[in-house]
């Protein structure tokens, strides 16, 4: 955990408050969040176990952490059904759905770069 008054934390806070790109990356950056959002973009609600199965290599602790952060940032919604055994599903919020265009452009750019790198080799 970072110290709130460290130079790094102060700089990060400043960038997130003044730069849209930095702020966006702070919400969706990292190894797993974009993948979680991408799976939920299908429009289907997914259970925790379905997400865990699709995210090969993610630990339980990390998946829970990422889901909580996405929920706190209002990008996903956690739906709890009152039944036994408990049923929990996740879906994108309207705000989360607005990321679709950005993610499509990032995917297209990345695929183009990968293909160009293959040709250059």
Could you state the order of secondary-structure elements as H and E? HHHEHHEEHH
What is the global morphology? globular
User: Over all CA atoms, what is the radius of gyration?
Assistant: 17 Å
Q: Supply the CATH superfamily name of the largest domain.
A: Winged helix-like DNA-binding domain superfamily/Winged helix DNA-binding domain
Number of domains: 2
Span from first to last CA? 41 Å
Total number of beta strands: 3
CATH class of the largest domain: Mainly Alpha
Instruction: Give, in spatial order, the strands making up the sheet with the most strands.
Output: 1-3-2
- Largest sheet composition: 3 strands, antiparallel
* Low-pLDDT residue spans: none
Protein model, in words:
By secondary structure, the chain is mostly helical. It has two domains: 1-30, no CATH class; 31-120, Orthogonal Bundle (Arc Repressor Mutant, subunit A), CATH 1.10.10. The chain contains seven helices and three strands; from the N terminus they run αααβααββαα. A three-stranded antiparallel sheet has the order 1-3-2. Helix 1 crosses helix 2. The longest helix has 21 residues, at 100-120. The protein is globular. The model has no long low-confidence stretch (mean pLDDT 90).
Secondary structure topology:
Blueprint: H1 7-18, H2 20-28, H3 33-40, E1 46-47, H4 48-54, H5 60-72, E2 76-81, E3 87-92, H6 94-97, H7 100-120
Antiparallel strand pairs: 1-3, 2-3
For the structure shown, list the relevant keywords:
single chain; 121 residues; mainly alpha; Arc Repressor Mutant, subunit A; 3-stranded antiparallel beta sheet
